[in-house]
Structures are given as C-alpha cells and as structure tokens.
Amino acid sequence: MVQASGVKMELEDRQTYQSRKRQGCTGSLQKRGLTEAVETGKGIGIIAPLSHKRKSEIVSLGYSLGVDFSQTWSCYKGEDLACSVCDSCRIRLEGFREAGRTDPIDYRKVLTGETGYAG
Fold it and tell me: Which CA distances in Å does 48 have to 10, 31, 38?
C-alpha cells in the first residue's frame, strides 16, 4: 500500500502500469499526481512484514493474535468452497499442517496420499 498526496493505492507492477499507460488508462493516477512516482519508483515504499516468514509461521502468529482463519480465503478458483488443488490452497494447507493446526475453511476436495494434506 502506498500513500502519496493523501491517496492510498495498491501498486501494480511497473510493466502492467506501463502497458495500461500506453492504452490510455491512467487518467485517475495522473489526476492524483502519482504517475511520476510509479514511473520512477521514487517515493514508493512497499511494506511486507510477513514476506520472509513461512506459511506455518504466519498461521502460528495469526492464532497468537486471535485471527479467525475461518474468515480468510486463499483459493484462486473463486467458488463457494476452496478447491484444495490450486497452488494457493496447497500452500495454505501445508502451512496449517506444518503449524499443527487444522484449516477451518471447507474444501471441495481433500488431498491425501504422499502430499500428506488433510482437511
């Protein structure tokens, strides 16, 4: 999240931004004075305090902070139930397993066998 001129925005990667700029989709950014900051990278800071942690560490930290993981979502599929097979679901399930916890959300399909996932 970046704050510049009192406006917060999620940053897209520079290539996506450049592509959209060529397509003329940057009017709102230009109005907010963020175009130069995005193009040059100056004045932009990205804070990702969990990026160096394993998913199991994030799960453990979340539980210690009282996070209700039943209210969180990771699945790429966007269906009523998490799929358990997309990369995001697999990483999430592995994180809960390594943390010694059971993921509280419902999954459409549970992976078993050599992967060791359980839902």
Answer: 13, 27, 18
Whole-angstrom distance, CA of residue 8 vs CA of residue 67: 25
Instruction: Give start and end residues of each alpha helix (H) in 1-119.
Output: 14-22, 27-31, 35-40, 55-64, 87-98
For residue 41, count CB atoms less than 10 angstroms from its CB and return exposed for 0-12, middle for 13-18, buried for 19 or more. Answer: exposed
The domain limits of the chain are 2-40, 55-115
What does pLDDT average to in each consecutive run of 10 residues of the chain (119 residues)?
A: 41 47 51 67 79 95 96 91 93 96 88 45
